[in-house]
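Give me structure tokens for this 134-residue protein.
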Amino acid sequence: MQGNPFIMSLEEKLAQAETHVFKTVFPETTNHHNTMFGGKILLMMTETAFMTATRFARKSFVIKSSEQIEFIRPIPASSLIELIGRVEKVGNTSLRIRVDIFLEKMLEEGRDKVVTGSFILVAINEHHKPVKII
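Here you go.
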């Protein structure tokens, strides 16, 4: 890349914004089925979407909507999970972020996608009005 070394291409910004969050499923995050509570999953997905949007645009964001959340398989207690946030679409004032959750059992090899969903976030200014992303 030539010119200003601090100016990134869109592809570079997309790659650098990809966010990975690792968690352990402890008993306080599970429900009466001894699987991860759905509300906790949605909270962590929302946080990951927010971090991904912020890393991409370095602006303040609010969540406009979540869509297509799919719980593919339950997440058992005593598991490891990885949340991966990626920018799917860049709009004028909004971003669509895909968050996938992968499950790893602590004592077994392998990894499976268990939850997926998209979130729309809107960039705002100090007056809480939408602002251009790029």
